[in-house]
Each structure stands twice: as structure tokens, then as C-alpha cells.
Amino acid sequence: MSVVITVAPTGPIASKEDNPHLPTQPEEIADAVAGAHAAGAAVAHIHLRDAAHRPTADPAIARRTMDLIAERCPILVQLSTGVGLSVPFEERAALVELRPRMATLNPCTMSFGAGEFRNPPAQVRRLAARMRELGVKPELEIYDTGHLDACLRLRDEGLLDDEPLQFSIVLGVAGGMAATPDNLLTLVRRLPENAVWQVIAVGRRNLELTAIALALGGNARAGLEDTLHLRKGGLSPGNLPLVERTVALARSLDLQIAGVEETTSLLGLGTVAA
Q1: Each residue's pLDDT tens digit, 216-271
Q2: Whose C-alpha in 28, 58, 113, 119 is 20 to 30 A from the C-alpha of 87?
Q3: Which residues 6+ apart lie within 8 Å of 139 measured at CB?
Q4: Is the bond into 164 cis (omega within 30 degrees of 0)?
Q5: Is there a contact between 5 and 41 (Cβ–Cβ < 8 Å)?
Q6: Model confidence, pTM
Q7: Are 53 and 13 in contact (CB under 8 A)?
Q8: Which of 271, 246, 265 minimizes the C-alpha distance to 40?
Q9: Three-class SS state of 228
Q10: Which positions make up the signal peptide (predicted)?
């Protein structure tokens, strides 16, 4: 059995003050992704920052980041349309026009820490339809049980291709599900047959829930977006140690690490429209 490892090097929240090894500029992100790919990651989940290190949906920054990654390694790029709480939905959604192999699709508006993560239903439907038109695979990020139902409604409306639906179960965000094994099991049991899924466990329970997800047949994500620490009280000196830890965990469970070609097949990625 093979497992897909995704690296999430940056995210929208943390700063270099939180961890000085956080990559924020295109060259830094590309270097971090290349190192993660060499260690076994087949997918790169990309958030963008501007020159002042703030979340941005600037298409020029996105294109430069994607190009630099492609120069360094053949990893599959997944752009986040979440971007950051302060960035308007339409700016975030426009990132799919760059035709990455994958992009996130967040189905619901929700409280997110002290802020609000806005994903209005009509706009989500338009984005889902546009992604389908462009051949950009949605990564469906679900932060609560009702988010799964919203995704299944999109599927039933013909806005999502069914083979296979790709889910990220996000645990530990204030405003979403707590990072507990029970919450993970609840969502896994309700996923559609043949769905592909991974866990995104934010914070101190990252390693524990990643291990549980791997044992249940899920994929895994690693990187400074999800946890800034390699161990209790110790900051991770970059993304690479977190990816290496996840790869070692998977191998300890006798799982094979999927390369880019196998991942393309496992995730059902088609050819992006020209």
C-alpha cells in the first residue's frame, strides 16, 4: 500500500517571528518544497506571501512561485485558495486561472480563530464549476461534519467529479473540529466510498493524529503550516525534518511512499486544460 505525502511549507497564519525557518518568499518556498520532494513528498500545498510576508493572492507571485518550484523538482503543486482571512474571495478564487494541478476548495464560511473565513455558497459553486472546467482537481477541506455534507451536495449537483473525491480532514482550528481521534473517526466513517483523504492536524496533536490517519488508510501532510514544532518545546528547523518524520512514520507502518507518477494516478489527476 502506498501513501501520498504532502508538504505544506508556509500557511497563512504563522510568521518568521513564530519560527524563523518559515519560508515566505518564492525562492524560500521553492527551496523548501524541493527539499521535501527529495525526502518523499509528492504534493506541495502552497500559500503565498507578499514582500512584507503577508498572505496574498497576487497572480504574479503565484506564477513565480510555481515556476521556481517546477525548475527545482517535478512535485505536484496544489495552490491554496484559502490564502488568508483578509483576502477577498474573488481574489482567492482567481488563483485557479493559473491552472495548477490541484487547488483547495473550502465549502463553508466559518469562524477561524479570532476571524471569519468567508466562503459564500454561490461563490463556492461558481469556483467549483470553474475548477471543473479548467481540469483543476479540488482538494476539499472540511473543518466540521457539516462541511462534508456541503461537499456531497456539490457532487450531487454535478460540480465535482466523483472519481475519486479528495478530502482533507482539518482538526484543531478554533471554530472547527477539535483535534481528537473521535472526530477523525467520525469523518472517516462518513466519507464516500473510494474517497481519497488525508488528515491535517493543527498544533500539538499533529504527530498523534497523523499516525492514526496513516493506520486507517489515509494520506499525510507535514510542514510548518500545521505545526511549528518538531518536538514539545522545540521549534522545527525547517520543513524538511517534519517531512522526514512523517515519511519515517509511514515506513514504520510498512507503507510505501508514493512518487509523483503514482500520486497522479491515486489522486485521479487528469491533464490540465490548455
Answers
A1: 999 999 999 999 999 988 999 999 999 999 999 999 999 999 999 999 999 999 75
A2: 28
A3: 45, 78, 102, 103, 104, 105, 166, 167, 168
A4: yes
A5: yes
A6: 0.96
A7: no
A8: 246
A9: coil
A10: none
